[in-house]
Structure formats: C-alpha cells, structure tokens
Specification:
mainly alpha, flat, disordered N terminus, 298 residues, 2 domains
Length: 298
C-alpha cells in the first residue's frame, strides 16, 4: 500500500514530491575538460609568479581577487545565461588553440581567464560577472606582460629615469655625464638596468590603484584618475631612487650603490609610493563625500 506524506497547512493533504538529487556528473566532466585544456596556462602562470620578480605581484593579487569574489558573493537575482556562456567559452577555446599554435603564453593565459569568465556567465549570468569586476581586473593585472611589450616599455622608462636622476644629481652639484642609461660619476659609472627601469613598481602600483579605487571610490572617473596618477608617482620615485644611489655612491661609499642597500632603497620608496597613492585616494574619497552630500541636501 502506497503512503503519501501530506504537507501541513495544505487542504486535502496532497502528497509532496521529493526534490530530485543534483547530478554532479556534468560539473565533474566540465572540470576535467577545463583542466585538460588550460592546465599549461595555470601551471606556467603560477610558476612565473613564484620565480619571476617582475611577476611576483600575482602571488598577492590572485588570493586577494578570490577573497573579494567570496566577500561580494552571488547576486540574489542572478540568472544563468547558458547560450551566451557557451558562445564565450567557444571563443576562449578558439583563442587557446591559436595561442598554442603561436606558442604565446600571454594569449594562452588570457584565454584561461576568458574561459573562467564564460563559465561564470553560463552558470550565473553576465550581471554576476559585472558584480565581480574588481576581482576580474586584479586577475587580469596578475598576468605577466609579454617579453616584447616589457622590452619596449622598459627602455623608455630606463632613459627617463636616468635623465631625471642625473638632473637631481646635477642640482646637488655632483659632476655627471649622462650617456643613454649610463650615468658617469667621477671614478664610477651607474648603469640603469631594465630591473631599475621602474616597470616592476609601476605594474604593482597600477594594481594597487585599481584595488584602492575599487574599494574606496564610487566614481569611475576618480578611479581612472587614481590609476593614471600611479604612473607619474612611480616614475618620479624611481628617479629619486637613482638620485639617492648616485648621491650615496659619490659622497659616502660606492658599495652603497649595490647589494642589500640598493634593494632596501627600492622597497622603502615603494612604501612611499603606496602612501602617496593612499593619500590621493583619501582626498578623492572626501571629495566624493562632499559632492554626494551636497546632492542629497539639494
């Protein structure tokens, strides 16, 4: 004899059908295929973060991005968009295939992030992806730039930093002869290498500008302004670093221009750059409060 379980409060005591268990097989198959396609992108990216000083900021940005995704959570009115998700995923897989033919790691890693975004759209919708714009931006910034791009950016930054550092040394009455990215001092020469171009600190400051702007500011224009201000701040302080190195080398001890002292200067000036960027963000935040406060009153 069949027994129906009646739900309390429903007239007639109609039987309630039990919810079918969720099938994890499609998710499992999707995960296996995803790992098979993008395993190289994931492993090489993590390896670059760990071994390349120019990409080390990814070790901080990726966990922060995941934490922000968890903190912001899922939208209550999210709606899956399977067709759009499949279309975006097909584009990401095509990009992964093209990058594999060209053996180009940057495009390969971008295809991996694009595939992650496509899966988010598939299961939760495009509005959820927009809700997670800040973590997505941080993950994009954690991908190391191609070597060609780094080389084309580093040389102009080297020359600019050399010129600014030499100008500061001349202002302090230090005899200087500038030849490209080589600063000739009496009895010694300073060679501004690619590592001293400021590109590493510039990349990190841009990421910090995006993070601070996304957390503290509401206006997209002020967020953009904060990120753009990170460029002159990084370039200025890198020139100051070269000046300090040359000054200590000339007046104190040539050994202070290299080794631990040289790296300590870099970290100290990066901390100063972070404080300056935070101060600008504080000013922008108070400007926003005044603006929105006046709008609320009017």
């Amino acid at each position: 004899m069949a027994i129906a379980v009646a739900e309390p409060g429903i007239p007639g005591g109609h039987a309630v059908s039990q919810r079918q268990p969720v099938s994890w097989l499609p998710l499992f198959v999707t995960g296996i295929v995803f790992i098979a396609l993008f395993r190289e992108a994931m492993t090489t990216l993590v390896s670059n973060w760990w071994s390349d000083p120019d990409a080390g900021h990814g070790l901080l940005l990726a966990p922060v991005a995941l934490w922000l995704m968890w903190r912001r959570g899922l939208l209550e009115d999210r709606k899956a968009q399977p067709r759009l998700g499949v279309a975006l995923l097909a584009g990401a897989v095509l990009l992964r295939y093209v990058s594999g033919l060209a053996a180009e790691l940057f495009t390969l890693r971008i295809s991996f992030l694009a595939a992650v975004g496509a899966l988010i759209v598939f299961y939760f919708g495009i509005r959820q992806l927009r809700h997670w714009w800040l973590p997505a931006a941080l993950l994009l910034l954690s991908v190391p730039l191609p070597s060609v791009v780094i080389g084309s950016l580093a040389l102009p930054l080297q020359l600019q930093a050399s010129q600014f550092g030499a100008a500061l040394l001349e202002a302090r009455h230090v005899p200087v002869l500038l030849s490209g990215n080589v600063i000739h001092l009496p009895g010694r020469s300073l060679f501004v290498t690619e590592a001293c171009s400021g590109l590493r600190s510039l990349t990190s400051l841009l990421a910090l500008g995006v993070l601070i702007g996304g957390l503290w500011l509401r206006s997209p224009w002020l967020r953009l302004g904060l990120v753009l201000l990170a460029v002159p701040i990084a370039m200025f302080l890198n020139g100051v670093r070269i000046f300090i190195t040359g000054f200590l080398t000339h007046f104190v001890n040539p050994a202070l221009g290299e080794g631990l002292m040289h790296y300590t200067e870099g970290w100290a000036l990066f901390a100063v750059a972070f404080i300056l960027l935070g101060a600008v963000a504080w000013v922008f935040t108070h400007a926003e409060q005044l603006y929105y406060g006046r709008r609320a009153v009017s």
